[in-house]
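Input record (Table S2, row 90):
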Amino acid sequence: MSGVGACPRCGEHSMMTPIEINALSRTTREASDAPAWVCSDCGMDEGLEDAFHTGATKQKFWPIERTFEFFIKETNLQSARLMNEVENEA
Ligand SMILES: [Zn+2]
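Output record (zinc ion complex):
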């Protein structure tokens, strides 16, 4: 891995290179904000926070535990199961 380091939001997942292929944090959507990049799970988490909460957790509260991690895991499990089913049919 390159020296991009861990995701600043969860402090856990490694970021991909180039940095632009990671998720652009929803905390940096204003024109005056400096862009911050987060891992794809955090990008999904922020999207869910935006949809079901009062918006994405602000950067001053980072690093945080992903609010919807259980939901993301479940979604990943479901897609993994789907892929297995497809493979088993082949
Ligand atoms: Zn993250």
